[in-house]
């Protein structure tokens, strides 16, 4: 497949997902704000089109603006999410017409794709890859909005695969340097670059993400009542926000249920816990006598191949993800049981690092040595050093185009409307 064909196919595949997420609800639900944490779905839709217009129609294509008058409405830096419903946004029909007009122009730009190797933005189709990833990231955000929406279910998917192997315990990762980040992945974003050696002391890491049954045991043991398991900031948030269990969990008699896209069912004991904030993850780890991994530890567990000493693109190797490797791309609407993806394990035997749940790691958002902002400071640089913790590996709602062994996500440590879980680590091995 030529680069042109690949770009067009990825744009098309991604737009179909955006349509599923926005066609599933009526106009009233599209313009409604389902949570102050989220934009109305109709904002995400037109914002996707606006970013595509800015970068691909105007910048790469050198064409006349389609709707310059609306740029400020869809600039994420100008208006906080909670304020967006009050803006004079495009309505559902207008937003759909807008994104489709922009897309027609972009496909024309792709057809005449200028091949200018001197222009970094065009190298390997980077600008198009960036816009595909941007739309997929907003699709995941829209999926999180769907999860917060109240009402009868509108999304459907096959259940994820069941466990086929037993996975448990911890994996030893030997001390030594490994290559973190990438200098070769064509569509990697600026914050994943460049590749650099990091020396990591030996550590132990869970072979799988922490499961619902394990997390329920933490709750039952009084984990939410004992400040000693929580950081000062974590405990303050636990109390002020009234946290007692993961988001969307309710207790029915003695049993925990979770509401998933409008359907309430008993928690799946052996599936990774999802919708916990960083503070909850860290408290669980402390209760278990462990800690969260650092970002470098997570990436070494995911990518380091002790046989060759090199870092892989993904835990299973250099091949792009397929349904056999990982639970990605909204193919299923919840995490799969631990042991469902033996073909996705890393060389060291760590499972389900990619897909299922984003994993909180105990590192802030900082640039790698040699970082250079590209294509603009607002992509990553303005967030460095802020009140964030990193999330790695992607979730069931993350598309493969926006998920790599090097991909870095970040959010505030109190956030849990995202598809976030975790695994634990230690420096001293099993107790
Ligand atoms: Fe955006």
Describe the protein's architecture and organization.
With 431 residues, the chain is of the alpha+beta class. Helices cover 29% and strands 11% of the residues. It is built from 9 helices and 12 strands. It has helices at 3-23, 27-31, 41-60, 92-111, 126-148, 212-220, 232-240, 278-287, 295-303, and strands at 170-173, 176-180, 196-200, 203-206, 249-252, 255-260, 263-266, 358-361, 389-392, 408-411, 420-421, 425-426. It has a 4-stranded mixed β-sheet with strand order 10-9-8-11, with helices on one face. The structure holds fe (ii) ion (FE2). Fe (ii) ion binds at residues 47, 51, 76, 134, 138.
Give a concise summary.
With 431 residues, the protein is an alpha+beta fold. Helices cover 29% and strands 11% of the residues. The chain binds fe (ii) ion.
Question: In terms of structural class, how would the helical and strand content be classed?
Answer: alpha+beta
Largest sheet, in brief, is: 4 strands, mixed
Number of distinct beta strands: 12
Strand content: 5-15%
Overall 3D form: globular
SSE run: HHHHHEEEEHHEEEHHEEEEE
Oligomer: single chain
Q: Which segments are poorly predicted (pLDDT under 50) over 5 or more consecutive residues? A: none
Gap between N and C termini, in Å? 52 Å
Strand order of the largest sheet: 10-9-8-11
Instruction: Indicate the mean pLDDT.
Output: 96
Radius of gyration: 21 Å
Bound molecules: fe (ii) ion
Number of helices: 9
Percentage of helical residues? 25-40%
């Amino acid at each position: 497949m030529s680069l042109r064909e690949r770009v067009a196919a990825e744009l098309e595949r991604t737009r179909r997902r955006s349509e599923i997420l926005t066609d599933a609800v009526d106009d009233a639900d599209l313009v409604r704000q389902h949570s102050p944490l989220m934009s109305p779905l109709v904002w995400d839709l037109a914002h996707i089109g606006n970013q595509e217009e800015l970068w691909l129609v105007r910048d790469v294509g050198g064409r006349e603006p389609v709707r310059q008058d609306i740029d400020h409405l869809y600039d994420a830096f100008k208006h906080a999410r909670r304020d967006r419903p009050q803006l004079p946004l495009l309505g559902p029909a207008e937003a759909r017409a807008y994104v489709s007009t922009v897309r027609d122009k972009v496909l024309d730009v792709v057809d005449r794709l200028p091949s200018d190797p001197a222009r970094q933005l065009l190298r390997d189709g980077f600008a198009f890859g960036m816009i595909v990833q941007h739309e997929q990231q907003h699709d995941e955000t829209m999926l999180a909005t769907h999860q917060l929406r109240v009402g009868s279910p509108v999304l459907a998917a096959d259940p994820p695969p069941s466990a086929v192997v037993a996975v448990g315990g911890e994996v030893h990762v030997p001390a030594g340097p490994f290559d973190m980040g990438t200098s070769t992945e064509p569509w990697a974003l600026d914050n994943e670059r460049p590749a650099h050696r990091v020396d990591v002391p030996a550590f132990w890491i869970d072979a799988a993400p922490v499961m619902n049954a394990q997390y329920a045991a933490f709750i039952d043991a009084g984990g939410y009542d004992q400040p000693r398991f929580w950081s000062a900031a974590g405990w303050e948030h636990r109390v002020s926000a009234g946290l007692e269990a993961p988001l969307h969990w309710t207790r029915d008699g003695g049993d925990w249920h979770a509401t998933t896209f409008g359907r309430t069912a008993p928690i799946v004991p052996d599936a990774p816990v999802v919708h916990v904030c960083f503070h909850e993850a860290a408290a669980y780890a402390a209760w278990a006598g462990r800690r969260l991994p650092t970002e470098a530890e997570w990436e070494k567990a995911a990518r380091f191949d002790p046989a060759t000493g090199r870092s892989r693109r993904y835990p299973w190797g250099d091949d792009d993800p397929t349904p056999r490797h990982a639970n990605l791309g909204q193919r299923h609407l919840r995490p799969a049981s631990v042991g469902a993806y033996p073909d996705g394990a890393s060389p060291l035997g760590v499972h389900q690092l990619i897909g299922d749940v984003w994993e909180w790691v105990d590192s802030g958002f900082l640039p790698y040595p040699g970082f250079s902002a590209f294509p603009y400071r607002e992509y990553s640089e303005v967030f460095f050093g802020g009140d964030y913790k990193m999330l790695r590996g992607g979730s069931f709602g993350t598309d493969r185009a926006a998920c790599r062994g090097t991909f870095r996500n970040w959010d505030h440590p109190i956030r849990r409307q995202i598809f976030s879980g975790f695994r634990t680590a230690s420096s001293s091995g099993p107790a």
